[in-house]
Amino acid sequence: MKNLYIFDLDGTLYEGTDHFDYYAELLMQDVPEENREAFWNDYEKMKAGEHPVAIGKAYDVENDLAVTVDPLTLKAVEAHKWNGEKVDAPERIYGEEQLVFDFKKLVAIGDGWWLPFAGAKHYGVKDCYPRYLQTKEYMVSEEFTLEAISGLREFLLELRERHDIALMTNSDREDVLRLLGELELTGVFDHVITSAQKPARTKAFFEELQSIYKIPFGQMVSVGDNFINEIAPALLLGMKAVYISEHPHQTEHKDLYQVNKINDWTSSLRKSWQTS
User: pTM (2 decimals)?
Assistant: First the structure.
């Protein structure tokens, strides 16, 4: 029985965090000079998990709040101010409904891209996108070394012999083609979706892929490093999910598999092939 594996790209199919620091350094140039030291100190605390803003949460730009999200219902359960002070009754701000994330007002902090973004917004930077584009340009320059994952190409080709594999990423098509070329993954995927606008359109794209491949959601597997973008929407649809992160969620679900590195999962899957 064929499954459909849907992979994220950034942070999933290559490793390294230097580009996040590069992005933070660029954004710091746009922060008022008197706040730059505070911005960098906050960024370092975020990375260390010592700040209200952290991977796995959301950042409310308009209210300058770090929002704790129930990972399976995507509802707000807590909110904290920048200084860590807890906000009473967050439901008065966010209601009882599933949160709707965008890239401007309420952002899902699913990976390292969004930590410097939140810091920059807190300190008054109006537009972070030009610095993001500069970072993407840096990532395809000779100055940047992409940390390819050993054995990943071979694994994906083996997986493709047994199942269908797709790529779904928020990066635009030009960036994706460059990155796949550098990773020697050009032509590996059966289906490639770029500019996916996750998490806002994650569910819609999963449903589109389900319709194309004509398989039940139970035979679809989302593989990614961003819980809100790729994992929670999959589980809510009845899909399986592989969450790759050194920041594991305290979430138990029969269809959820959590690992620190993608090679931990690939090794496990290969063993299952040998015994089946």
Answer: 0.84
